[in-house]
Amino acid sequence: MKKSLLTLSGILTFQLAAFAQQVAYEEYNLDNGLHVILHQDKTTPVVVTSVLYHVGAKDENPERTGFAHFFEHLLFEGTQNIPRGDWFKIVASNGGQNNAYTTDDKTYYYEVFPSNNLQLGLWLESERMLHPVINQIGVDTQNEVVKEEKRLRVDNQPYGNVFTAVKKELFKKHPYRWTTIGSMDHLDAATLDEFLAFNKKFYVPNNATLVVAGDFEVHQAKKWIQDYFGGIKRGEPVKRQTFVEDEITTQITATYEDPNIQLPMVLEAYRVPSMKTRDARVLDMISSYLSGGQSSVLYKKLVDKDKTALQVGSFSNSLEDYGIYIIYAIPFTGKTSEQVVSEIDFEIAKLQKDLISERDFQKLQNVFENRYVSQNDDIESVADNLATYSALYGDISLINTEIDIYRSITREEIRDVAKKYLKPNQRVLIDYVPAQQKAQ
């Protein structure tokens, strides 16, 4: 009976995904190199204007880390036509909302307005690109804002430096070795000319993707886009350096001390391929199998059954050039990191040797079908996904077709990819411990 119910669930999920609405879009380039994507959806009277700049932490000078994230804040300071401090007031007074975020690979800005305010959204983003005011007052102000953010989200957050601990061990050549928020000492030492140069290099139309999504008229949008962005001068081509890491052939062990925790954590971290690869998608499925909820393999084994860990999880941090695959656990009181690692490795070894059951495989398929249905369930997500697939993956059609890759993954691939990448001699093993306490 349970098998029949599971099969029925799988059929219904597949049918739901099969009939999920395809995301229609139009894309073209302005003469200055700005890539434009239009997605019309009149079901809700809102419109999103967003701009993805293909610049993230990996594009920074190693002596000036944190610049990309800093600009996420700095470019809300104001423009030649928007007085300092008025950006958010303009958005709010016109019924809108806005935000931005930075990753290792991109910086993304967006506004959501009632559909009758598309022109305002386009003007705001064109002002950010064409007329930003970058002066010492703004730099000093945002320097303090970023420092406070780092204190709240990283320095004073329990386990807030996990990525700091992992990335510096996993990467020796690639700029992924530092975190997105960067170094406060680097920001303090930076000159105004350095900030101006960073803006001139990366915040140019030929390094940007503009998305308009929602309730709008295409012909009118195209006219306004040409009016507001067409006259912006093309920048110099952005030249990106390629960094190739040496293979890890012997397990790297390290200890990281965190003053904000009382319970130690053990981390297994693996350097894996780019998010654009098929293997990266297989690793996504492996992560879900190992730790996707309380019915997952690691949770049932370490937390429920053996009481070895208070918490256990895994995730794949997919990036443009490489990926980071992390398995973490907080040992139960009286248990050692070695015991936890031994149990995790035992389950991974089983995954590398045997095919997962048909039942578990069907559950995985259901998870990813549901994720496909939900990933574009609001217009803000659609805009973000369109920009990201276009700029970082180089294939905008993936917004509709990536699910087909997941559907085609086999149990044999799950076994083989686990065997290929999740080897003890290819990882970093970190004891993440309370400050002043040495690893057991």
TrEMBL record:
The record ties this protein, via InterPro entries, to: Metalloenz_LuxS/M16, Pept_M16_N, Peptidase_M16, Peptidase_M16_C
Q: Where is the Peptidase M16 C-terminal domain?
A: 190-366
Keyword check for Nucleus? no
Q: Which SUPFAM superfamilies match?
A: LuxS/MPP-like metallohydrolase
Q: Which residues form the Peptidase M16 N-terminal domain?
A: 36-179
Q: Which keywords are on file for this protein?
A: Hydrolase, Metalloprotease, Protease, Signal, Zinc
Is Signal one of the keywords UniProt gives this record? yes
Signal peptide region:
1-20
In which family does this protein belong, per the annotation?
Belongs to the peptidase M16 family.
Q: What is this protein called?
A: Insulinase family protein
Native species? Flavobacterium agricola
